[in-house]
Amino acid sequence: MSRLQAFRYYVRAGWRRMHPPPAEADWRRACRLADRTPRHRAGRIRLLAYDLAYPDLLMLCPQWHDIFVRETLRFRARTGAPRILDCGANVGLATLFWKRCYPGARITAFEADPAIAAMLRDNLARNGAGDVEVVAKAVWVAGGTVRFVAEGADSGAIAGLSPGIDGPSVAVPAERLRDRLVREPVDLLKLDVEGAELDLLADCAGVLDRVSAIHVEVHDFTPARRLLPAVLELLDRAGFTTALDDLLPITWRPCTAPPSPFARGQACWLTLVRAWRPDPS
Amino acid sequence: MTAPRLAGVRRTAGAIRRQVWPTPAVAAWRRACRTAGQVARYTPGRIDLMGYRIQYSDLLTICPQWHDLFVKETLRFRSGRSAPRILDCGANVGLASLYFKRLYPAARITAYEADPTLTRLLAANLAANGAGDVEAVNAAVWTRSGPVDFRCEGADSGALDELAGALPGERLAVPGIRLRDLLEAESIDLLKLDIEGAERAVLEDCADVLGRVAILLLDLHEFEPGRRHAPAVLSALSAAGFTVSLGELNPLPWRPPVAGGDTPFPGAPLCWTCLVKAWR
């Protein structure tokens, strides 16, 4: 960088810092507030025009940053009313974002944690997305009930699937994702299901041709059993083009790491995998 | 002052301190970047970085290499041996070999570089920086020995001509060397593979001799949306008994993808490189 370029860079960075776009300004405000609030305290906050209930403000901040500042879920639909399944909807930010892009979107939002599902329903109703179908169930490879560890924020998981998340579990109703896909084709399938993603995709392998695009968070928290290789191979075989993004080393979670020749931050990570069908032309 | 605010002040103070008094590696990197901003690309030259005298073919590509190796130390590894056997495949001008020598002065390293011009710089850099015992070999690591066509991009992106996504450059026949033969000949403590898209074919060729490698540091190059390497490579490594981990993911938004650039996700990078670490 030449001196002039460096000067311009810092001036621009300073300007942006002082005059952030509204979504970023609200993110900063939320972070400042989260710094002063004890963890796992439920509350309400206004971000942009949204009035949002949350179980834990600190967890809401990165979600807001990813979805409304960086817009990682941005998606070009072929119709004005894409069919979207939001699996692991949490308090509904992803669904609200898609509704903002496509007011006609037909969305079903699944959330397994009963307390968070109630917030999800309220958030959607309060923010003009009352037509979204909220299903307070875990998406899984079978119906019936599953044991679910309700961590209370953004890491609740089906018991046994997410190392480190092993508190007392509750029985929650489950729905088989495959049945949904058999019933109707889907334009976008979002999976943020804390370790259940490989089992789910494997169960749906035969019907993935009914899905046009997939946005899946891969939670690789067990060094001895990596999900990413199998997830990528499965999507590849189902005819999807894949792209990796947003590799996030998870250094703060206790995970059972075998001895490794590398320094640190190698054991657990989170990756975003996007998959889509190549253009037939 | 509240605790979070104090933490914030500390963070800012730390950032200012690092900016004003950088570590030697960071200071060298900044100087290289400033110099690179002032010279035209692909201008050969020499620069002193933290005591190393480095000859280069293109300073701009030295900067990120230096930052990864000497600032972030992405290739740092622990070995039970004081003289680990290392193959540095895709050695470029030798920064990785020099870094390994810094970690393990007794390391027994062979460095392979396909571009003949870069191989000369590699050998000169090793000799000038106390790593004269590292063997520099002008060869493309591949699935067969004998001559192969190589596109000399001139900096850090030269690749075998037959690979999709090879960038334009002078086409030369260079000696090819079959990695499989090397692994059959001896056990390797660390295999570093940064071979611009040839990694999938090479690893598939070596599938049943990968047991001779203890640690693998692999740069996965994804330039072709319609044919990704990650699924096959990661599965092959898992099948060979490695525990894998992803180190760094670098999206390459400036690089045109080889066909199949049509995606419903405007934010998705279509080309990227990813550092894969694998160990037993």
Describe this structure in words.
The complex is a heterodimer of chains A (281) and B (280). With 281 residues, chain A is of the alpha/beta class. Chain A has two domains: 1-71, no CATH class; 82-136 and 176-276, 3-Layer(aba) Sandwich (Rossmann fold), CATH 3.40.50. Chain A has helices at residues 3-18, 22-36, 57-69, 93-101, 114-126, 177-183, 197-204, 228-237; strands at 43-47, 50-54, 83-87, 106-110, 133-135, 138-140, 144-149, 157-158, 170-176, 186-191, 211-220, 241-249, 269-276. In chain A, helix 2 (22-36) runs antiparallel to helix 3 and helix 7 (197-204) packs parallel to helix 8 (228-237). The N and C termini of chain A lie far apart (42 Å). By secondary structure, chain B is of the alpha/beta class. Chain B folds into two domains: 11-73, no CATH class; 75-279, Rossmann fold, CATH 3.40.50.150. Chain B has helices at 3-20, 24-38, 59-71, 95-103, 116-128, 179-185, 199-205, 230-239, and strands at residues 45-49, 52-56, 85-89, 108-113, 135-138, 140-142, 146-152, 159-160, 170-178, 188-193, 213-222, 243-251, 272-279. In chain B, the strands form three sheets. Chain B has a seven-stranded mixed β-sheet, sandwiched between helices. In chain B, strands 6-9-7-8 form a four-stranded mixed β-sheet. Chain B has a two-stranded antiparallel ribbon with strand order 1-2. In chain B, helix 7 links the parallel strand 10 (188-193) and strand 11 (213-222). In chain B, helix 7 (199-205) runs parallel beside helix 8 (230-239). Chain B is globular and about 60 Å long. In chain B, 46% of the residues are buried. The chains are: A alpha/beta (281), B alpha/beta (280). Chains A and B meet through strand 11, helix 8, strand 12 and strand 13 of A and helix 1, helix 2, strand 11, helix 8 and strand 12 of B.
